[in-house]
């Protein structure tokens, strides 16, 4: 019932997928629909051929019922992603600016809304794969900088951070406990001398 | 400091370290294999760390400043090992040397502060963890797995966590 | 003031109010998940969320009755399905939040029993009941298994004398991944260094250093 300790401190990819489904996308309804009063953002009344913004999970339900078409986000096209790939190659010490949930949204739309995308899906999949690999290689190289106090990694998306997290935190915490022995050894010696006297 | 119930901590505490008795103690001969006889002053014996810790700090009586035992530098920080750590950290066989290496170094250095040793061990951890990361993320099982057998307990846990996380990602991508 | 500043201020203040329940729940859940210690119970967020969920469920029941009498159309079914999915999603977030807190309570039981007496906002009423019952069950189990056969001086479970405390305390010096969401730069002082947290930058720092900023909302755990 309680959360298993293996999940504490890190998310599973499926949970990150869930969070990604809360992002807003633009849809093109094919029929009209009444307004829906949701707890979060209320869904506005939908009229055919008039674009509206809704959360991704709503868009997927509507799409599965054939009630709408999903407008792909501005960044999900071959040209933009190829340019980002070039940017990654040009700047070996920095990550290019991609949306927080780019991998999840790309995967969902490629699987469920292929016909709405402007480019053929196999090309998109391959450029996404390339982007992912080059960013992974860069982040692994950056792991050489691990130290016991702090590091910064701007530009990574949540899924990529989550992949590295157990390793990064494990090593940094161990480095920290090793380092702390040099600062606290004097205090511990005094404490132990006092306490052991009490026992006798 | 550390978790009272942590199993790794308890196991690490059981490691034996060499100690020298500062006084003669009657009746403890069984530690040496001579039951019934006393332990003479200046005898060297291996005691588990949890016992050695307390005895090394406790003072015998209010008059003398001596403690029951003196701890001697154990094998895992002698110069041969330290040289190996400095020159080629990824080839040191920590498992054979001391399975709970990092934990014991922490305990040892919290009693006797040794900045040099800590620096060397931290560097070793950094380099070895980089290797561990590349091994854990490598799907191809043909890779030479010699290195994996030389890991200590902490590194083994790290390896397991990293490969779990990697496996989860790969499974999700395949869906 | 520059026209750009005015425009930016206007943009920032335009965040819709209605999606706040979702975002608040998500932030509370992720913060709780990533932090090594128990955070104060998000009373307002939880009450708002739970009331909203039960209102929505009531609405569903009412409209079902209406639908049965009138004859349900496919659009009606779609409507109800979307509302039900949203309820499921919110319930999932609520469950994850509570489960995370419970796992921390299980791990650091005695510590939080002591803490709760000083700071009553840390646990909700149900959690207080849970932690006392859990501690009672656990001590009963230990007693029956072995403690009653051990000399009385060694039967304490919260003994703090001696070299090591028996109470497991959460380690607030653990590292966490954080992101700064405020435009004013935050400077953290660590030993002899200081690092600056810039807006939208992602850093890994010790939890204890950023704890106050997390409470203010300037920095979020990711």
Automatic annotation (TrEMBL), chain A:
UniProt similarity note: Belongs to the GINS2/PSF2 family.
Alphabetically ordered keywords of this record: Chromosome partition, DNA replication, Nucleus
Top-level division of the source organism's lineage: Eukaryota
Alphabetical list of PANTHER family matching this protein: DNA REPLICATION COMPLEX GINS PROTEIN PSF2
Entry annotated with the keyword Secreted: no
InterPro entries: GINS_A, GINS_bundle-like_dom_sf, GINS_Psf2, PSF2_N
Acidic residues: bias regions: 188-200
Assembly: Component of the GINS complex which is a heterotetramer of SLD5, PSF1, PSF2 and PSF3.
GINS subunit domain segment(s): 75-178
Location(s) in or outside the cell: Nucleus
Protein name per UniProt: DNA replication complex GINS protein PSF2
Matches recorded under Pfam families: PSF2_N, Sld5
Region span, Disordered: 181-200
One Gene Ontology biological process: nuclear DNA replication
All residue ranges annotated as the DNA replication complex GINS protein PSF2 N-terminal domain in the record: 13-71
Any one annotated GO CC term: nuclear replication fork
UniProtKB/TrEMBL annotation, chain B:
Main location, first listed in the record: nucleus
Keyword rRNA processing among UniProt keywords: no
Annotated ranges, domain GINS subunit: 77-173
Sequence ranges assigned to domain DNA replication complex GINS protein PSF3 N-terminal in this UniProt record: 5-57
One record GO biological process: mitotic DNA replication initiation
Keyword terms of this UniProt record: DNA replication, Nucleus
Intracellular or extracellular location(s): Nucleus
Segments forming a coiled coil: none
Family assignment from sequence similarity: Belongs to the GINS3/PSF3 family.
Subunit annotation: Component of the GINS complex which is a heterotetramer of SLD5, PSF1, PSF2 and PSF3.
Descriptive protein name: DNA replication complex GINS protein PSF3
Organism: Spathaspora passalidarum (strain NRRL Y-27907 / 11-Y1)
Automatic annotation (TrEMBL), chain C:
Taxonomy, superkingdom: Eukaryota
Keyword tags: DNA replication, Nucleus
Domain GINS subunit, first and last residues per copy: 68-145
Family annotation (Pfam families): Sld5, SLD5_C
GO biological process terms, semicolon-separated: DNA-templated DNA replication; double-strand break repair via break-induced replication
Sequence ranges assigned to domain DNA replication complex GINS protein SLD5 C-terminal in this UniProt record: 170-222
Entry coiled-coil feature ranges: none
Role played: The GINS complex plays an essential role in the initiation of DNA replication.
Designated name of the protein: DNA replication complex GINS protein SLD5
